[in-house]
Design a protein that fits this description.
Number of strands: 4
Structural class: alpha+beta
Number of helices: 2
Helix content: 10-25%
Shape: globular
Mean pLDDT: 85
Number of domains: 1
Strand content: 25-35%
Order of helices and strands: HEHEEE
Low-confidence stretches: none
Oligomer: single chain
Largest sheet: 4 strands, antiparallel
Length: 85
């Protein structure tokens, strides 16, 4: 089990960002802390979007691997390969 807060913290830190960089989140604090299974299906987390000054993070469900995870894209497209996940 995991929460979106834990998963987002990992990706924010990986991209040199933190909670203070978030401009908007579609989840409430309670929804961020709701446990869910990362294996998708009925135990998948609540879909969300998070905007920072650099990236837009979103929930994604990979039907092939049957898992729920976080994807992100740059807010402003660039040629840096690090900007695309």
């Amino acid at each position: 089990m995991t929460t979106w807060r834990k998963e987002l913290e990992y990706w924010l830190n990986r991209n040199g960002e933190g909670w203070g960089n978030i401009n908007f989140c579609t989840l409430t604090a309670n929804e961020l802390d709701t446990n869910f299974g990362s294996h998708g299906g009925k135990d998948a987390g609540i879909p969300f979007l998070v905007w920072t000054s650099e990236f837009v993070y979103f929930s994604k469900e990979d039907e092939y691997h049957e898992c729920t995870s976080i994807g992100y894209v740059p807010r402003n497209p660039c040629n840096n390969p690090r900007c695309i996940n």
